[in-house]
Predict the structure.
Amino acid sequence: MKKIMLIVLDGLGDRPNDVLGNMTALQAAFRPNLNFISSKGMNGLMHPISPGIRAGSDTSHLSLIGYDPEKVYTGRGPFEAMGLGMEVKAGDIAFRANFASRDDSMRILDRRAGRITSGTAELARALNMEIGGVKFMVKEGVEHRAALVMHGTGLSPNVTDSDPHEAGKKVSSVSATKPDGEATASLINKFLVESRKILDEIDVNHDRIREGLPPANELLLRGAGIAPKLEPFSDRYNMKGACVVGIPMISGICSLAGITPLSVAGVTGRVDTDYRGKIKGAIEALKTYDYVLVNVKAPDIAGHDGDPILKRDVIEKIDDAVGQLIPLAEDTVICITGDHSTPCSMKDHSGDPVPIVFYSDGIIRDRTAQFDEISAQQSALRLKSGDVMQYLLQLSERSEKYGA
Amino acid sequence: MKKIMLIVLDGLGDRPNDVLGNMTALQAAFRPNLNFISSKGMNGLMHPISPGIRAGSDTSHLSLIGYDPEKVYTGRGPFEAMGLGMEVKAGDIAFRANFASRDDSMRILDRRAGRITSGTAELARALNMEIGGVKFMVKEGVEHRAALVMHGTGLSPNVTDSDPHEAGKKVSSVSATKPDGEATASLINKFLVESRKILDEIDVNHDRIREGLPPANELLLRGAGIAPKLEPFSDRYNMKGACVVGIPMISGICSLAGITPLSVAGVTGRVDTDYRGKIKGAIEALKTYDYVLVNVKAPDIAGHDGDPILKRDVIEKIDDAVGQLIPLAEDTVICITGDHSTPCSMKDHSGDPVPIVFYSDGIIRDRTAQFDEISAQQSALRLKSGDVMQYLLQLSERSEKYGA
């Protein structure tokens, strides 16, 4: 039985870039370690979720760690909230939220409160409260964005948005979409009444009005979802799992599955992360854990920025760091892939497949000898993200036979 | 319309073997006929069940002959019983069983009765009985292993194990896991009471006690399953099917589907089988049947034995035999593949894909010219075992259009 190291290079996949001589960032990078692993390993193209699907990091990671997002991904709310660093537990209800401006007749004047840039932390803090035994927690995001998490018992995600989704319309009161949502809807409406009183009185808004800015006097809610109760990873796969990730949404997902997020000094979830330290920390974790997931966010950031040079450069740093994995091949199955493509030319996630490589002593290899989107096209495997866990389990001799 | 010949080389897939210069057994074998067929055919990599799944021969054959094991494979019991050569009919309930030792307080002393090696045929025979119109049939397997089949009407697999799964614990009485299992559970408990009386009195156990060996005085039951009622192959695919297989489990599965097992002289299901005779018999059967399945067990046996030389050698004998198929290409679709990989280095089934080739005059070919795990990596197709029947049907011009 071997241990498992899964390295997810966030947003790895790319498309041709003029500035890189029509190569992808991965093709253009000096990557001797990735190429060595590719040449000694079993390569493939991996479709996040399914061919053509533009996967998010949340859905793709869920499926990479062995949970079917079709069954457990019940709405963006809980995952957005985790992405803001909020603690979200199984059964919690979460909404995506906007700070918005409304008039006294409850009509929305601006769904983004003039794209408010400051004071939202104070606004969010002021809205934390408890009603009927249920905790309401609000946290600010970028500009007008925020999330609301409800923590309590017997909550249901089957409620409508309060967001009318269009300026000029009135704020909706929240209602149940199924009978089990009635108690939750009623609690949310009470919260909204309370929150309006607080937002009308708060200094931030008095200041904004004085400065001629639209007040952030309404928290618009949309996309209710319940944080799924995932079967514990340790029960499901009989492995102790840990993760080394710099972004709260992914560590939140891992936590829901019972995969322990570890803190490693210097890991930031940004392009200035300590790449070597991150991989070193993950290798250290393999002493205690059977399965370690690493997420390196930097390629995705460079992709969203539309910066092929930066994307190439961070991949070169990653390559330098993953060299440390090579001596592990005797008793570890190493898998390197992406969670989706973030082509620099698109500045967003595409539905293109990403290269994947499995590397461990004694496994069957293919003839692919370079790790990039184009070389992977001649590789052996065509997988979906949901196949990766079973493939890792079989290579590490951890799965049961299906049948006799 | 063409006929179909499906050759399943059991446990065909392999991983690199030191002793074969890091080749797989298939790569190392002199295989001019398989390579000829590959060069004239359409090649692919086939994942038994799904990528990474460590398929059993039972689940894989079910899916190769066109039945979804997710729907029809309800537990190992019936398939293990077939594997022992027992007749199992749709609706029968079967358990995997152990001959075990218990004390007078019903506590299990040894779940394997000292890995009993002789006398189990006599023990099993003594336990055949009829209770309440239901026939109980027991058959011994290797060492302490056995199977129990219940044949009657209205039986349910929704019952617990009597096996406490741990020495030192007491034998459980069987209970229903769903209301429809109550009558069945009650019958099994009666059978167990009767069987204890018989096993306490039988000579085999008196002899064992006298020799200081633990008596085999309890039949522990686990893994109840119902033999599925499969839609007849002839209705489902409008073909008359036959099979030439040497192992009872696969002929049992074929029988459930209405694919007729044929006996061919010299076919043993072992490495000493008459390879040429087997293929000759299958070709003969094509005169009467539309679809003939051949299973050659030998590569799997060599894989489980961890013997790459033997695996290579039996593949060379298979190659010699399949040469007889080449003249059939005009009016037959020939498919050669494995049901799973049994790497010699692992001595068990892995979740690696296996090569597959379809060969018939006039079909589209790919550029693959050798039949092995590595050459297949550059081939055209990536299939799952559940795709194979539809692919055969279309090539033989036997399937309906899906749409207009």
Observations:
- The first strand of chain B starts at residue 3 and ends at 9.
- The mean pLDDT of chain B is 95.
- Chain B touches chain A at residues 14-16, 24, 45, 49-60, 69, 73, 76, 79-80, 83, 249, 343, 345-346, 348-353, 373-374, 377-378, 382 (CB under 8 Å).
